[in-house]
Amino acid sequence: MPKQMRLTAADAERLLLKAGFIMSYGRGSHRVYRKGSRKVEVPFHGSRVLHPKIVKQVLTAIQD
Predict the structure, then answer these.
(1) Averaged pLDDT score across all residues of the chain
(2) Percentage of the chain modeled with pLDDT above 70
(3) Quick one: how many helices (H) and strands (E) in the chain?
(4) Which residues, including other chains, have CB under 8 Å from residue 30's CB and lie 6 or more apart?
(5) How many domains does the chain have?
(6) CATH, residue 51
(7) Backbone conformation region of residue 28, classed left if phi is above 0, alpha if psi is from -120 to 50, else beta
(8) Residue 2 lies in a domain
(9) Which structural domain, as residue segments, surrounds residue 27?
(10) For residue 5, what is the DSSP state?
């Protein structure tokens, strides 16, 4: 099984915006992106790599 992508918050944001999501709101170090009824929350903590569960949520939201 291939390894999952490693994304930073900026990479995830770029992918979400390109897929048509808009930033709904941001509070503190988290930003929420929406497209229709789908919602994805991305934590922004510098240039740290996102947790694999969050990467999976982002990739699943983009593919749907």
Answers:
(1) 93
(2) 98
(3) 2, 3
(4) 41, 42, 43, 44
(5) 1
(6) 3.30.920.30
(7) left
(8) no
(9) 9-63
(10) P
